[in-house]
Specification:
It is built from six helices and seven strands; from the N terminus they run E-H-E-H-E-H-E-H-E-H-E-H-E. The protein is of the alpha/beta class.
Length: 247
């Protein structure tokens, strides 16, 4: 018996990277997983791998109508949703002077507007399920600043705040809302990063998507007295540089 037997979970950006790791782990715990993404071939292949009632949903998270249509279809076919993982995200690099307004808006649309639309759309389904959990994948960049990724940082700080508002608004319906804040994780987004990027952390390595997935599962299944809360997995980056031990 899995801890999520029969529960319906939607994972955005679920076709690869962190999203795929989350989808696999939730399915292993018995959830009926909807892999929501724009990557049709990869998403369909993953849903087939998961088997059972799991399925792929072509979804542009910035499209309000697509959210409504996709969730209506999910509830019709599988039942009300009780877990939403807002994982879809993009980044664009450049200083404030270098980045175009179009690029800035696109990053914010996907990383912040997307989860907002998702939470609005899924709220009625969560109520029909008798409650549930929303996990918003923010970032270490939602807790501190980084030069050269202003839109990404702004969107992830915004998602952190939006999580707290949603937690307050949905608590009366038995819905918990938390944010997860990964540091540097080995995904397509960080494929061009040199290993030295993590060298200054107390744990001097990149994290793996599976480590983030285990944190998400913990939030969904074990952190039952937490809502509006940040869960951080960053190799100790926020704690400061590695300790210097005097002989």
């Amino acid at each position: 018996m899995g801890r999520l037997d029969g529960r319906v979970a939607v994972v955005t950006g679920g076709a690869r990277g962190i999203g795929a790791a989350v989808a696999r782990l939730l399915a292993a715990e018995g959830a009926h997983v909807v892999v929501a993404d724009l990557l049709d071939a990869e998403g369909t292949a993953l849903a087939t791998e998961l088997g059972g009632p799991s399925r792929f949903l072509h979804l542009d998270v910035t499209d309000e109508h697509a959210w409504q249509k996709g969730l209506a279809r999910t509830e019709r076919d599988l039942g009300p949703v009780s877990v939403l993982v807002n994982n879809a995200g993009i980044a664009d690099f450049g200083t404030m002077e270098e980045q175009s307004l179009t690029s800035f808006r696109r990053v914010v649309d996907v990383n912040l507007q997307g989860p907002w639309l998702g939470m609005r759309a899924v709220a009625p389904s969560l109520r029909r399920a008798g409650g549930g959990v929303i996990v918003n994948i923010s970032s270490l960049a939602g807790l501190t600043g980084y030069a050269g990724v202003g839109a990404y940082v702004a969107s992830k700080w915004g998602l952190r705040g939006l999580t707290k508002t949603a937690a307050l608004e949905l608590a009366p319906d038995g819905v918990r809302v938390c944010s997860v804040h990964p540091g540097v994780i080995r995904t397509a987004m960080t494929a061009g990063f040199d290993e030295s990027f993590a060298a200054g952390q107390p744990l001097p390595r990149f994290g793996d998507p599976e480590e983030v997935a285990r944190m998400v599962l913990f939030v969904v299944t074990e952190a039952t007295f937490s809502t509006g809360t940040e869960f951080v997995l960053d190799g100790g980056a926020l704690a400061g540089p590695p300790a210097v031990v005097n002989p």
